[in-house]
Amino acid sequence: MDSASTYDDPAPVRGHASRAPRALATEAVHAGRDDLARQGLHAPPIDLSTTYPSYDSRAEAARIDAFATDGADPAGPPVYGRLGNPTVARFETALARLEGTGSAVAFASGMAALSAVLLARAATGLRHVVAVRPLYGCSDHLLTAGLLGTEVTWTDPAGITDALRPDTGLVLVESPANPTLAELDLRAVAHACGTVPLLADNTFATPVLQRPAELGARLVLHSATKYLGGHGDVLGGVVACNEEFAGQLRKIRFATGGVLHPLAGYLLLRGLSTLPVRVRAASATAAELAHRLTADPRVARVHYPRLGGAMIAFEAYDDPHEVVSRVRLITPAVSLGSVDTLIQHPASISHRVVDEGDRRRAGVSDRLLRLSVGLEDVDDLWADLDRALGVL
């Protein structure tokens, strides 16, 4: 097999809209793999190369010039790992198709992905961000601390339009939100943004339950570490967007080095193939657990999204730290979206970096617990929660 066929474009993201529409479950299995059969392959290969040979330096210079101009994927064989990687490109192709966008750009983590978006907007002089709480704690901290030179105005959904300024480069929301699971009308929010791009964090819902681009969001963010990977063994982030903005993100990624490792790209692509099955199965269990928690007199309040999902937030009458200490089957740990069930106390961990007053005003009380439901049997999970909740 010659080099041209070995690197037969694994990621023809741009222009994929001309393809015949396929169901999400089908895309989850096949997107990013369309070229494998003609290469005599079944499983996607892992390309771990950091650099690639080139005997035509003039052609390589032209490709580098083209990348510097618009951030487009260099045509032909790969050049260097920081410009792009064939394995990572397969994951990007698949995620873009699942989210219904023209392109996607992957990063080393969800925070690296968000940072790249903020840097891309700031590079055009648009440093102001309008954001709606709650957000993931580190996203909140990144904006509030101004670590990337951005300025943020926090508002509720009804105040978005009034909060916009001439230098506003982005509106940032998360729905369902971390950790309260508050939901927003993304279509209405996108309308309120006018010409300012809306970035919707879709980590909790995944494209299985919600496709923000269809509702008007121009950028869709994922901590791929969570449901996209799905097994608690890979870090990654990705932004689904149009090709024009993807080019800006690729240039930021190249300059800052926040690249996704090829092995992580492979694991994320593999995770996507079971994403619909995992999300639907975990969501069914979560809905039943939410029902049981709601009926339990030891529980003061339960938050569960109308659109469903595998996340539950609840407030027990008992000390939340004691509840966490009593679980045995459920793992007390930060993060979410794995095949096993996790529980954590947001005020102590994921949202500890958010100012206490801001945290409480966003609905993140000191009693709130966040449960990420996995694929275990519902009765086994309930037995563990029943024990952890203690007695009245």
Brief digest:
This protein is α/β, with parallel strands linked by helices.
CATH architecture of the largest domain: 3-Layer(aba) Sandwich
CATH topology of the largest domain: Aspartate Aminotransferase, domain 2
Identify the strand order in the major beta sheet.
1-7-6-5-4-2-3
Report the strand count. 12
Mind explaining what this structure looks like?
- There is one protein chain.
- This protein is 38% helix and 15% strand.
- By secondary structure, the chain is of the alpha/beta class.
- It folds into two domains: 3-273, Type I PLP-dependent aspartate aminotransferase-like (Major domain) (Aspartate Aminotransferase, domain 2, 3-Layer(aba) Sandwich); 276-388, Aspartate Aminotransferase, domain 1, CATH 3.90.1150.
- The strands form two sheets. The chain has a seven-stranded mixed β-sheet, sandwiched between helices. Strands 8-9-12-11-10 form a five-stranded mixed β-sheet, with helices on one face.
- The radius of gyration is 21 Å and the shape is globular.
Features:
single chain; 392 residues; alpha/beta; Aspartate Aminotransferase, domain 2; five-stranded mixed beta sheet; 12 strands; globular; disordered N terminus
Topology:
Blueprint: H1 3-6, H2 24-30, H3 57-70, H4 86-99, E1 103-107, H5 110-122, E2 128-132, H6 137-144, E3 151-155, H7 160-163, E4 168-174, H8 186-193, E5 198-201, H9 206-209, E6 219-223, E7 237-241, H10 243-256, H11 262-273, H12 275-295, E8 299-303, E9 311-316, H13 320-326, E10 331-332, E11 342-344, H14 356-361, E12 368-372, H15 378-388
Parallel strand pairs: 2-3, 2-4, 4-5, 5-6, 10-11
Antiparallel strand pairs: 1-7, 6-7, 8-9, 9-12, 11-12
